[in-house]
Structure formats: structure tokens, C-alpha cells
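FORM 7B: Structural annotation worksheet

SECTION A. Query
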Amino acid sequence: MNQKPLPIKENKLKIKEIIDEAPNVKTFRLEIPEDLTYYAGQFFMVWFEDNPKLHRAYSVSSSPTRKGEMEITVILVKEFTSKLFKCKPGDYLIFKGPYGRFLFTDDMKNHIVLMGGGLGITPLMSIVRYCHDKKLDNKINLIYSARTPDDIVYKEELDKIKKENPHFHYHITITRPEPHHKWDGSTGRIDRDLVDMNIRDIENSYYYISGPIEFVNNKLKILNQLGAKKEHIHKEAW
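SECTION B. Predicted structure
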């Protein structure tokens, strides 16, 4: 993977639109200048003008191919997001970045396996959107777990991309199903069998794992058992 480092810049960005994705989950679409660039999968530090000490790191969920705007998808937890969720279109946030080596570039021609737990899907969605927009030939398998069907984000877009892109496939599993959910898809955590089912070539595939640290560590263990090359594994944990 041969990528040149991008300049880290601080920008005051205007909120263009706020989209409700799921209960307590919103996407913030921001207007960005032409010189703000990032790789699919990277993150930015974000804070408010009136309180720079209150800051958080957020992965970008949009693709760098989509010029003039950038998106982050956020779940409501604690002080920072409580304030963020009170923002309105027209308000401003400070972004500094991009940061991170959890990224995808065009020179990666191999099969790509993406594994996300909860909102760990956000940087993975950036990669999916990027590959789709660029019409890359990579075979991409996304394995995504959510607690309930109501917690699934980007479902309509994933269906649309799957319909338009023969190289893309995804599998969603629900970890806390209830009878009233009327979910007829997979249930349970992402286990070894599910991972194995979605990998065509263990040794030559590239892997991106994103989610809570327990989720990431479990998937690392599974990939090690299956014989994946350590140098092909990228992880983003919190």
C-alpha cells in the first residue's frame, strides 16, 4: 500500500445537513473546502469553537470522491455528543486531520473483507462508497453486526450498491434479536464460520476490522486461526 501522507489541517466546517440514521444515531454532512482531502477510512479530531478542550475523534463515513462535502456518523453518548446533537444546519464545528493508517488506496487490488461492529461500520462505509464511486474491480465483502434491526445504518444504500455493483456483497447479523423485531436474517455474533464463509482467499485478502476493542480482538483471533497474514490486517478499535 503506497500512499503519500496528506497534510494535517484545521478547518472550520459548516453543517450542511443532519440525517437521522437510527435511534440516537445521526449523520452530520459538512461543507468542506477544495483543499481538504483524506483517504477512505481515516478520521478527524472534532471540537466546538467555544470549547476546544471538549473534543472527540470521528471516522469519516463519506467517500473522498464526493467533493465539496464530508460526513461523520455519530451515536449519542455522554457530554460531547449531547452538545453535538443540539447543533443545527448552519452551525460550525472545528475539524483537524486527517489522521490514521486505517485506510484504503487504489493500489490495493486484492479481495477486501470488511468487518464492523455497531458504528464501527462508519470507516468501512467510506471504503465501500469509495470503491463503488471509483468503479474498482476489488471483490468486497462487508460483514456487519448490529444489536437490533433498528440499529442498522446505511441499509438502503447498501442494498442499492449491492444491486449496482456485482463485486460487492454484504452480510448483516443481529446480536440481540427479539420476537417483535420480525428479523428473518442472521442472528448472533460474527463467528469463525461466518468469517470463513465470506473469504475467498485467506492468504491474499486484505482485512479491515472496526468496532469496540473486544470486537476487534475477537476478529483478530479468528483471522489468525484461519491463516490470514498479519500484514494484511488493518484494525480500528476504541
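SECTION C. Observations
The CA atoms of residues 70 and 94 lie 13 Å apart. Residues 9-99 form a domain with the Elongation Factor Tu (Ef-tu); domain 3 fold (CATH 2.40.30.10).

SECTION D. Sign-off
Analyst initials: ____
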